[in-house]
Design a protein that fits this description.
Order of helices and strands: HHHH
Largest sheet: none
Distance between the termini: 42 Å
Radius of gyration: 17 Å
């Protein structure tokens, strides 16, 4: 009984990890990020400003790395949505 329960819990954990990555990946595949949308509405924003804001929000990192940081923060209780 306990082996079956442990097996089901591990399967559920794996499904949650895969689904969180897929959803995070689909959000990451959107054509524009919030920084680019903000830059499109502000003609005074320079390319250096855009690069600095992307680095500040972590949008210059690979998608897997951003997901990993989000997952670690979510597991520690920080559920804020970041790029």
């Amino acid at each position: 009984m306990s082996a079956s329960l442990l097996s089901r819990l591990l399967q559920a954990l794996l499904v949650l990890l895969v689904m969180s990555f897929l959803v995070y990946g689909l959000i990451g595949l959107m054509p524009a990020n919030p920084i680019e949308l903000m830059a499109a509405g502000s003609p005074t924003m320079t390319a250096d400003d855009i690069a600095r804001l992307k680095a500040l929000q972590g949008l210059d990192q690979p998608l897997v790395w951003r997901w990993w940081h989000w997952l670690r923060a979510a597991l520690s209780g920080d559920l804020a949505i970041r790029g």
